[in-house]
Specification:
60 residues; alpha+beta; two-stranded parallel sheet; 2 helices; 25% helix
Amino acid sequence: MKLIGQCDVEDITHVLTEDESTLVKYLRRVHPGVFKPTQAVLLSDGFDTAWFDGGQKGLN
């Protein structure tokens, strides 16, 4: 919860993590009216710039 609170205060929109069983679960439970939305990016999914472009995929 401290990490989620810090994300809220620092306007951090994404968190890279391997912790799918805890951090991701808590981020999904956070109420948008209480905290700003922060998305968890699982390291196992690899990197994709679309996370930071509103889901827009780049042209290859």
